[in-house]
Amino acid sequence: MVRGLEDKIFNAVSYTILALVGLVTVVPLLYVLSVSLTPYAEVLKNGGYVLFPKEITFNAYEKLLSNSAIPRAFQITIFVTVVGTAINLTLTALLAYPLSRKGMPGRRLFLFMVVFTLLFNGGIIPTYLIVKATGLIDTVWALIVPNAIWSFNVLVMKGFFENLPEEIFESARIDGAHEWRILLRIAVPLSIPSIMTIGLFYAVGHWNSFFAAIMYITDRSLFPLQVVVREILMMTQQPLENAEDMVPTVTMQMSAVIFASLPIIAVYPFLQKHFTKGMIIGSIKG
């Protein structure tokens, strides 16, 4: 196939834009990683800007992990992410599946209630009072229960279930399968890409949970990782007597950012194929 001049110009412009977008995305992350691994003397020598360190040191990470608050916050964040995501997916599927069945009694009323919560909410203070009244203050469940289900994800998963061929469900009912069996043995297995996609949204939301923690948690021993990282980022730079030996605030800050971001960055490539497939399925109706 012979490409014309217009195609070549289009491809050149497209590749240039993609390269620029890639640089804008990668360079800041590379800078943060490099500064966290570079001795502070070299950072000062280069005016605070290092992309490719000449010498690598893990002093900042060693000092970061020696702080008991970091491992404890890491464990809390993992618990909230794993347990919270499992609860989210369970409740979302249990609500989305019946809403996707057109013969369900009261379907329109329940759909209206779900959509209504997308437009209106009780506000910060009433929500806090509810969380306090239920005894969730200063517990890890305060980071899970108030966000146990997201209305938008319910509607997305409902769309996935509606895209499944109705003939499959009718055949299962003829064979005597009840709705629970249809959901667990047919709807869920066929919707794995969509479930993985929504699960990724839930997991990232829990991992980055910050506002709920500062609202409902006052016990420092229950702070999740993002709150502890925020405290590290708010640290002020202290004067250095020996830049070769000391671990200054700036490298601690960069190592904290990498430490908080690395798990999600490491997991995403394994979920990318499900994420892409799930988004494609969700965009097609039929």
From TrEMBL:
Matching CDD domains: TM_PBP2
Please state what the protein is called.
Protein LplC
**Family listed:** Belongs to the binding-protein-dependent transport system permease family.
Q: Which Pfam families match?
A: BPD_transp_1
Highest taxon, organism lineage? Bacteria
Please give the InterPro entries that the UniProt record associates with this protein. MetI-like, MetI-like_sf
The record's annotation in SUPFAM superfamilies points to: MetI-like
Q: Which Gene3D superfamilies does its entry note?
A: MetI-like
Domain ABC transmembrane type-1 spans what residues?
Answer: 74-271
Q: Which UniProt keywords apply?
A: Cell membrane, Membrane, Transmembrane, Transmembrane helix, Transport
Q: Which organism is it from?
A: Paenibacillus cisolokensis
Where is it located? Cell membrane
PANTHER family listed in its UniProt record: ABC TRANSPORTER PERMEASE PROTEIN MG189-RELATED-RELATED, POLYGALACTURONAN_RHAMNOGALACTURONAN TRANSPORT SYSTEM PERMEASE PROTEIN YTCP
Q: What is its main location?
A: membrane
Please give, as recorded in its UniProt entry, the membrane topology of this protein: Multi-pass membrane protein
TM spans (from-to)? 12-33, 73-97, 109-129, 141-161, 182-204, 250-271
